[in-house]
Amino acid sequence: MFDFEILGFERWMHVIAGITWIGILYYFNFIQVPALAAAAADKDGPGPAAIGKYVAPRALLWFRWAALVTWLTGAGLLQGLGILGDAFMLKSSSFGIGLGAWMGSIMLFNVWVLIWPNQKKVLGMVEATDDEKAKAKRTAFLASRTNTLLSIPMLMFMVSSHIIVKAPF
């Protein structure tokens, strides 16, 4: 009973953190990026400063920690089920969930290693020249779009993990 309760709580945390992570990912890509472009183009409006100063830092805080909690609880679930190694080694019986776990791992790497450090430059949280900010903006943008593209197949592998998807080899 105790293992079931722990795994149930871990699954609940994984789902809640995952919804938060992917929801904010979609917010950035489908709402904030176009809104910042529109605000910058609107010469009579208030400009994008308020979003960059008040909204983006808070959204990035939730984004990066939700990513970490999602990954840790997912790994904990796989460990609790006794398939963590098999999933990451893409062994036949854990191939589908393993692909999802690898996509989630790539996405976590993108958040913490590419998106967050570069967004700190873009938002002026760390010193950067205009050239460094331009490069950081592009790097963060590409990593975020990559995560958006990976999110759909990753989610499909996660929600269909009860169906055994065997390795094609």
Automatic annotation (TrEMBL):
InterPro entries tied to this protein: UCP032086, Urate_ox_N
Sequence intervals crossing the membrane: 12-28, 62-84, 96-115, 148-165
Stretches assigned to the Urate oxidase N-terminal domain: 11-81, 97-163
Keyword Membrane: yes
The entry's keywords: Membrane, Transmembrane, Transmembrane helix
Pfam families documented for this protein: Urate_ox_N
Protein's UniProt name: Urate oxidase N-terminal domain-containing protein
